[in-house]
Amino acid sequence: MSSARDVVIVDGMRTPFAKSGSKLAGIHPSELGRHALRELIAKTNLDVNLVDEVILGNTGNPVDAVNISRVVALGAGIPQKTSAYTVHRNCASALESLSHGFEKIRSGTMDVIVAGGTESMSQMPVMIPKKIQDIFWKLFAAKGPGQALPLAWKLIKADLKQIKALLTANQKDDYFPIIAVEKGLTDPFVGINMGMTAEILAKEFGLTREMQDQFALRSHQLAVKATKEGRLREEIAAYPMPPNYTEVISEDVGPRDGQTIEALAKLKPFFDKKTGSITVGNACPITDGAAMILLMSREKAQALGYKPIAKIRSYGFAGLEPERMGLGPVFATPVALKRAGLTMKDIGLVELNEAFAAQVLACQKAMDSDEFAKQRGFASKVGEVRSEIINVNGGAIALGHPVGATGTRLVLTLAKEMKRRNVQFGLATLCIGGGQGGAMVIELEA
Asked: What are the boundaries of each domain within the chain?
């Protein structure tokens, strides 16, 4: 049954996603967001004066655009009178932005919201270690050459120590630079990085290296197929590359045509080098990109003559132990399904973010396990997530995972595919660093 306060997805756009250090490495995250939003405005012929708010997810928090949502909004032509703010829930930041928009529209507070996310993982900083920082601060406060010159010499010696630390790859050295993205992907509570959390799941759920590599191969094959057949292009705003704008990036930089299981098998474990099975081939790459969705109340969309793709039925977030954060979808999905009044059997398509092949496979096993449900105190198992309905256009292993934007990409890709296949209900879900999960249920508009 429809309601005037239903929250509908009018449309969405995203930039191509590109591996960190590749095509989009030099593009500021605010520019990535601006481009996606500007193209969405053009595609929907939206009167920007009608936008009540812009809400974006971002985790890198660039120092020259701290509230990046406001910077993106103004850059895209949203009026100065329109408020904008940025949200951060690690990997689910862009899903968080959608949930904020959902609540504000459903409550009647607002009618038109842009929700999305943007991230340049290429531009996350390499920070100076504290020992060198201390010298810099003293140098800035120095009074005259007498104080400054000894500090400058001390700084030169510190630089030499830093070079030595880098050459020997001694990360425990006090002079080794602090890599922000590496720190950000390390859980502060249990002290292990996200890759090691996937190793835990691989071992506990009996997921072999071959199983993971086969799943990774599937992701690339499906993403390549979806790209060639133009399905992903429907959601991508081609990006003309500065400074000459002669090169245009119109596809994701990640899916590998011709990827083979033999090539994946040659890769060495990256996190647990002795007994591990997680490699750079069966994990998602560090990625740059932005994604935007235009949300409206049903009554506003109808008044403006829009035909929405889908409506947001519900969402849910849940927590679990940080060292098993990859199981987040298992905990968040039943929350979203209960709020939607549905079960897993009602779901016709699923987008489950591929942080790691092991993590997705573990979620599938846990969701369909009575034993797991009993151990965790669930009333019943979540239900089977059939392989033929999950990530049918490939996932983050091939497409990439720009952490501040992925939640929106999942919902956008899901809504578009539901429309193509005439699927009534879809689920977008993902794990969240720190031990959480997020999920959103959407329903196809007639």
From this structure: 129-176
